[in-house]
């Protein structure tokens, strides 16, 4: 696929020493120290020692992309909202009225909205990026969600979009989503990758009733059985069970990791895309920061499966990239501590750790 490289660790010891030498007990800033190490490692790739020593590390032009797509599975009534809501919410994003717009303005993210294939294409005047693969995926209960051609084009679209963002000196990308029915797709992907039964991966999405939750689980069980002979690779799983927005998100994550940029992974659907990305390119995990543990039932199990620790746990289950957006000040704080916090010798404080 994209030949993602693992992080080069030649500067890791120097980075860790600088963190440990700050005026604090060893490890006292907890996960903020882990985050600082990961970010500096990512941002220092391809630097020589001299350049590394004189660089002040910062997040440049952070980009948050919301991918939107409609799902054939939604026609079975697996959500409290009809598919038409996807297009309505895309218009809301374009007009600046959603939660993700508010958070991006609050934290200075550059926000882009992508139509990956929704029932009703937005009006051109709204400024939504058009990367349509169709009006919606097929219902994955009785057919592959997308064709080989749609899969290939979707991955290419995601890659191309990232390349346009990186042309503006961006070193941090976050990805969100919108699509009625996409928690069904994400749960099916998780079951296919992990072997967990749908009863452990299927949640309530937008807040469905017990009856709808049961129907949703049974439809995913049906889909996994129907496609069982074909779910051999991550690409097979994506083609059979994925969504147009998930497909383009995977392409974007692969491209960002290939270019050694930091990736902020949002919630349940974005983590499904990350799981597929890691399955295709295991080294891509090095570049991923997992934003939060969402309120969707299967998300904590996804994070456990990946053996990663999220930054936040706020019970969010909105999607849109909202959890990822909230992480930016935490990422900036980790770098500020790395750049600006005094060492024991600079502050003339006794280093009780090394003494």
From TrEMBL:
Keywords tagged on the record: Cobalamin biosynthesis, Glycosyltransferase, Transferase
Pathway the protein acts in: Nucleoside biosynthesis; alpha-ribazole biosynthesis; alpha-ribazole from 5,6-dimethylbenzimidazole: step 1/2
Active site: 320
CDD domains for this protein: DMB-PRT_CobT
Domain of life, source organism: Bacteria
Catalytic activity entry: 5,6-dimethylbenzimidazole + nicotinate beta-D-ribonucleotide = alpha-ribazole 5'-phosphate + nicotinate + H(+)
Enzyme Commission number(s) from the entry: 2.4.2.21
Glycosyltransferase is among the record's keywords: yes
Signal peptide boundaries: none
SUPFAM superfamilies, sorted: Nicotinate mononucleotide:5,6-dimethylbenzimidazole phosphoribosyltransferase (CobT) (SSF52733)
Gene Ontology molecular-function annotations: nicotinate-nucleotide-dimethylbenzimidazole phosphoribosyltransferase activity
Pfam families: DBI_PRT
GO BP term, pick one: cobalamin biosynthetic process
InterPro entries named among the record's database cross-references: Nict_dMeBzImd_PRibTrfase (IPR003200), Nict_dMeBzImd_PRibTrfase_bact (IPR017846), Nict_dMeBzImd_PRibTrfase_N (IPR023195), Nict_dMeBzImd_PRibTrfase_sf (IPR036087)
Protein task: Catalyzes the synthesis of alpha-ribazole-5'-phosphate from nicotinate mononucleotide (NAMN) and 5,6-dimethylbenzimidazole (DMB).
NCBIfam families with a match to the protein in the record: cobT_DBIPRT, PRK00105.1
Family per similarity comment: Belongs to the CobT family.
Name of this protein: Nicotinate-nucleotide--dimethylbenzimidazole phosphoribosyltransferase
